[in-house]
């Protein structure tokens, strides 16, 4: 028999769905190296490889066969060839810029365990897509709002969510559209570094975000009476500010967020919240020029920095904090715990806090490879984000389920055990 790769689903899957990988037609107990390659839209190559030995029947099923030492990972890891993808150039992070096109995953099977690998025995290609059939992508340019709305297939209205990314700016759409695949109307909202929005992070006005909230509350395809917020990093503290000052927010999920205002002045009507102070002396730079910034922010419980603490006790919503316990960007667990204390001190309901040991800062949708270090726009050099690849990957899978269950429970009134999968 000629060796061949068997994938399930065969040709195309959603990026956050598992992909079953097997090789058939090998010799009994034959040693092979499997390699995956993926090019992003900037032409950057990401690769992973693993060493395997086929069974007595010449079959190699990654769900049953452990990877042997010497590759990108070892042990029983059916999705290892995806989550272990690493950039061939340092400090690159895998992101999806155009969600309307899939990533093309190339899978190759080589003879033996040599370096470089031996003869090519089999290969296959697979599309990792972001939009389920029927999901609508609607660019939004209303008033000052610069955003993209994703609407699920079928008849609405749907529970609505506003999705915010961090200090990188621009308009990342990939998390919003993946979430829309599961029955949510999701608005990916830009807030700086995009089109005619401010070019840098000096000052933000909550009135801009209020426009986006009102847009969602008034949309015929969005189910009221309130909406959800989802934010990571800087987007997280903006979500806390929105929940604290704006009406119509029912549920807020924060991924590795600060409970203090960070990086820019925040204004709303006659209220001004200064940014949390930074002490550059606390930044450690290693021999490779990579910065560890985890100690750079001041403590928002001390001195004048207390003015930066966002008054989240004013919020009328439920909170979910997703925390990577190896976050090296800032002290996410400390922030979540202090936010919880503040809410409870004011008689509010205790927020849900889900902690993941071994997870770093960028907790993305499932199967995005962990980014250990990349450029930080505000620091001006590469920074370490933290995380251990396998634990980080497992955290992303679980967090994705937690986020959907939380929003389903608080935005639709359905218990978290029921699924709206389309």
Explain the overall architecture.
With 422 residues, the chain is an alpha/beta fold. It is built from six helices and 24 strands. The strands form six sheets. It has an eight-stranded mixed sheet with strand order 10-11-13-12-15-16-21-22, sandwiched between helices. Strands 2-9-8-4-5-7 form a six-stranded mixed sheet. Strands 1-3-6 form a three-stranded antiparallel sheet, with no helix packed on it. Strand 17 (265-268) and strand 18 (271-273) form a beta hairpin. The longest helix has 24 residues, at 389-412. The radius of gyration is 22 Å and the shape is globular. GO terms for molecular function: fatty acyl-CoA hydrolase activity. This is Acyl-coenzyme A thioesterase 1. Keywords: Fatty acid metabolism, Lipid metabolism. Belongs to the C/M/P thioester hydrolase family.
Average pLDDT value? Answer: 96
Total helical elements: 6
Question: How many strand segments?
Answer: 24
Name the shape in a single word: globular
Distance between the ends: 39 Å
- Structural class based on helices, strands and sheet pairing: alpha/beta
Low-confidence stretches: 416-422
Radius of gyration: 22 Å
H-E order: EEEEEEHEEEEEEHEEHEHEEEEEEHEEEH
Helical proportion? 10-25%
Largest sheet: 8 strands, mixed
- Strand content is 25-35%
Give the neighbour order of strands across the main sheet: 10-11-13-12-15-16-21-22
Index terms:
single chain; 422 residues; alpha/beta; 8-stranded mixed beta sheet; 6-stranded mixed beta sheet; 24 strands; globular; disordered C terminus
